[in-house]
Amino acid sequence: MVAHRLQQVEPSRTIAMNERAQMLRRRGVAILNLTAGEPDLPTPEPVQEAAVAAMRAGHTRYTPAAGIPELREAVAAYERNRLGVEIRPEEVIITCGGKQALYNFFMALLDPGDEVLIPTPCWVSFYEQVRLADGVPVFVSTSASHQFFPTVPDLDAHRSARTRALVLNTPCNPTGQVITSDHLRSIVQWALDHRLYIVFDECYAELTFPGFTHHHVLQVVPDARMHLVTVNTFSKTFCMTGWRVGWAVAPEEWIRAMTVVQSHSTTHAPSISQWAALTALQLGRDHVDTMRRLYAERAQYLLDNLRDLPGIRVYAPQGAFYLWIDVSEWLQTHGMDDMQLALRLLDEAHVATVPGRAFQAPGFLRISFAASQDTLEAAVAALRAFFTGT
Questions:
Q1: Are 249 and 230 in contact (CB under 8 A)?
Q2: Rounded CA gap, 351 and 376, in Å?
Q3: Hey, what's the torsion of the CAs at 210, 212, 217, 223, to 10 degrees?
Q4: What is this structure's pTM?
Q5: 3 state SS of 322
Q6: Would you say 92 and 69 are in contact if contact means Cβ atoms under 8 Å apart?
Q7: Beta-carbon contacts of residue 187 (< 8 Å; ≥ 6 apart)
Q8: Confidence band, pLDDT 50/70/90 cuts, at residue 390
Q9: ∠ CA 251-254-259 to the nearest 5 degrees?
Q10: Buried b (16+ CB within 10 A) or exposed e, 179-203
Q11: 14 and 124 Cβ atoms separated by less than 8 Å
Q12: Rounded-to-integer distance, Cα 8 and Cα 58, Å
């Protein structure tokens, strides 16, 4: 028998739907895959060249567990310039993507039975990683009236003597919403009043759309520093998903604890990827600005072509590259749930989506528009035909 903790954990449903779509493709089915949270753009050429140069220079051996000093310093400088606050290299750990940064912290923080508040809809790995650390995820339901972010009364109603931390994710996967500065300030101040740690996932920080601004916790509540762990990644901003390199910024004592966890799991992030990431941080703004404009255009295209479909409601993305769709009315009319709908869309319309239940939000679908314009146009035609019966 596997360990009890693993009996409570399910494989990632986003990955599962992506793998199902890829399986159908291998069988010759022309699948329009809108599941993966992965930029469809290539890794910038200078980053690729830096990886080759790193290999030729012999940077293929073990590195320090917390990352090469050059990259820790570069990340610290990047964060100092972005936030206008002092960040030291000792407050940075380089990880195997943002996912391991989260895992390291939960493993370092939680004792069996400790609780973590997780607003829903939420990314699939937040709650499973808490369970893997023998913690208890406590889901806090949100509403569209507050852009799917929790209010202080929402959080207060779920806090207990065992609550240790709160997870915040903005721009949000799966909703694509961006929290306002006033809303963020109220939540952070509440967490500090109750001496909770804030796990701030800002992996999509650079991908906000016109009219919306990403706010960091330290920009709205500078005093939060000792109770804050910030997680970021090179995957989204620099199109480096497969390179597996991310980072966390936290008080030095937590970085040391997270490094202990990492030293006994992956040892360190891939050496070659770390040197490539160093070059990524030295790129100009053109790459990011071009990507942001492209995703904003794709988001508008999907909104213009899907928002009038019967029985569904589409929420305009404010950042990231996801379209969040309320299909509860359509589901009620047709007597099925969101998982059944996602499977029908895959089998009949050949469009791969992710059901809302994967994000603890039944009755919704998530569509990724990190796909080519041709793919999106074909998907729109297939979705319109499916939902209108034409």
A1: yes
A2: 10
A3: 110
A4: 0.94
A5: strand
A6: no
A7: 149, 150, 152, 155, 166, 168, 179
A8: low
A9: 125
A10: bbeebbbbbbebbbeeebbbbbbbb
A11: yes
A12: 43
R_g over Cα of the chain: 21
Q: Which residues contact 254 (CB under 8 A, 6 or more apart)?
A: 105, 108, 229
In terms of DSSP H, where are the helices of 111-251? Answer: 124-132, 152-158, 181-193, 217-220, 234-237
Q: Look up tokens 């940077």; give the residue.
A: 59
Helix (H, G, I), strand (E, B) or coil at 185: helix
**For residue 126, what are the contacts with CB-CB under 8 A and spacing of at least 6?**
102, 116, 118, 137, 167, 169, 201
Q: Are 124 and 102 in contact (CB under 8 A)?
A: no
Segment 200-220 shows an average pLDDT of 97
- Tens-place pLDDT, residues 128-159: 999 999 999 999 999 999 999 999 999 999 99
pLDDT at 365: 97
Greatest CA span in the chain, whole angstroms?
62
Distances (CA, A) of 22 to 241, 346, 365, 376: 17, 11, 19, 17
Domains of the chain: 4-42+286-388 (3.90.1150.10), 61-280 (3.40.640.10)
Cα 218 to chain centroid distance, Å, stands at 20
The residue type of 196 is L
